[in-house]
Amino acid sequence: MSISAKAKIGSNVTFGEYAVIEDDVALGDNVTVGHHVVIRNGVRIGEGCVINDGAVLGKRPGKASLSATTGDPREFPPLTLGKAVTVGAGCILYVGAEIGDMIFFGDLATVREDVKIGEYTIIGRGATVENRVTIGRKCKIETEAYITAFSTIGDYCFIAPCVALTNDNFLGRTEERKKHFGGPTLKRGARIGANATILPNLVIGEDALVAAGSVVTKDVPPRMIVLGSPAKVLRPVPEEQLIENQVFFDK
Known about the structure:
By secondary structure, this protein is mainly beta. The protein contains no helices and 33 strands. It has a single domain (about 1-60, about 75-245), classed as Hexapeptide repeat proteins (UDP N-Acetylglucosamine Acyltransferase, domain 1, 3 Solenoid), CATH 2.160.10. The relative contact order is 0.08.
């Protein structure tokens, strides 16, 4: 175990074997750090957090020579975790991400830089959240979902397993594509079914529902169910399924 003398450690913090805590890390009270965890320089962790085995917190981004969405090396604000966050085994959370209170990360989830996630949200096992993404509060993003760079996800959204959000209509060809990058915007309470694909720059309206396996090529109206490839409006979302009629909804 390697704990920097420059780290600030709260009371009742426990460490597993071979944990590495670098300079200027701040751990709140009652934090649990598992085996083989690496916490990089400057990370801020709130009280009551649980960091499970093999997680890496505060990783800096690299840049592939052909990457169009990762900027040049620069200074990022520290990775910050709010209170009572659970980080699953093998997760990687990058520098510059802002994680709210009571968030849960399943094992092997990845969150890139310039990401903000609201309180009580769940990020499922193996899910990937790319850079420059905003995710609201009380969302569920399930196993192996892919949240592309430049996406915006409102409060109470549900994204089922293996959903893919996209941000490049040119599929990596021509310099023109760089003028049009943009992930989808999901308005409050939007739901996306398993294995659906959402094309770039689209808006999924408030409380809309995209059926499993659909390919969405146009904006989805609020409170409508869409289905198919390409997705078309099927019918309105039933009244009893609207977000304001759920017991967990608190505005």
